[in-house]
C-alpha cells in the first residue's frame, strides 16, 4: 500500500447493473472506500451535503439531470470520474476537470488506471507508482460456480471461450464442454473479470481467446461471433488496447 488514507467514494448511476459493477470494482481496490451508492442526482446531492466525499463515480446520462449538469451545480465539487455509454459527452466531462472518463462496458483494468490518476493527484506519485487490486481468494479471482444438472459446477474463467444468451438461460462455451444454466447474461457479466467484453446483446467473449476479428465478426476457434453495431466502436477500442 502506498498510503493508509482512504479515498471516500460516492457512486451514482441510474442503471442497477452498472452501479453494481462500480461497487464491485471499488471493493477490489484497498485504498477506495464506498460511502454510498445512489441512482439519481438528488440523492447524490443529499449525500454530499452531509458527508465528505473525495471522489464521485458519476454516470452522465441520467433522467431529470445529466451528470455534467449536476457537477456544474456544485460549488466545491469533489474529484469526479464520469461513466457513460456515450462518447459524445467526453468534451463536457473534461471541461469540468474530470479526472477521467470511462466508457461502458468498463474493463477493470481501465477503472484501475483512472483510480491511479486520482492517486497521483492526491499524493504526487511518480508515473511508475501505481495501485493494484486487492488479492482475492482463488475461487473469487479465477473461477465461478454455475448451477447445471442439479449441481454447482466450478468453471475457471480461463477456460471460457464465450457466453451466449438464450432468453432466460445462458450457454457458457469452453474448449472441452458447454454448460447451460438458468441465468441472465447481464447478471453473469457483473461477475466476470476485465478480459471479458460484450460484443453483442447475446454474446460476451474472452479477449484472450480471440484468434482474429473484423468490423463485424470475431473468430474464436471454430466459432464466428457477430459484433453488433451498437457495441462495435467500444469493442474496437478495447481490442486495439490489447
Describe the strand arrangement of the main beta sheet, using strand numbers: 2-1-3-4-5
Number of helices: 8
What is the CATH topology descriptor of the largest domain?
Rossmann fold
The average pLDDT is 82
Q: Which CATH architecture of the largest domain?
A: 3-Layer(aba) Sandwich
Label the overall shape.
elongated
Helix content: 25-40%
Rounded Rg: 19 Å
Unreliable parts: 123-140
- How many domains? The number is 2
Order of H and E elements: EHEHEHEHEHHEEEEEHEEEEEH
The top level CATH class name of the largest domain: Alpha Beta
Q: Count every beta strand, where a strand is a DSSP E run of 2 or more residues.
A: 15
- Note the beta-strand portion: 25-35%
The biggest sheet, with number of strands, parallel, antiparallel or mixed sense and barrel status, is: 5 strands, parallel
CATH homology group of the largest domain: Response regulator
Distance between the termini: 27 Å
Judged by helices, strands and strand pairing, the structural class is alpha/beta
Present the secondary structure layout.
Elements: E1 7-12, H1 16-27, E2 32-38, H2 41-50, E3 55-59, H3 67-72, E4 79-84, H4 90-95, E5 100-103, H5 108-123, H6 138-142, E6 143-148, E7 151-156, E8 160-166, E9 169-174, E10 178-182, H7 185-189, E11 196-200, E12 203-206, E13 212-213, E14 217-220, E15 223-226, H8 229-241
Parallel strand pairs: 1-2, 1-3, 3-4, 4-5
Antiparallel strand pairs: 6-7, 8-9, 8-12, 9-10, 11-12, 13-14, 14-15
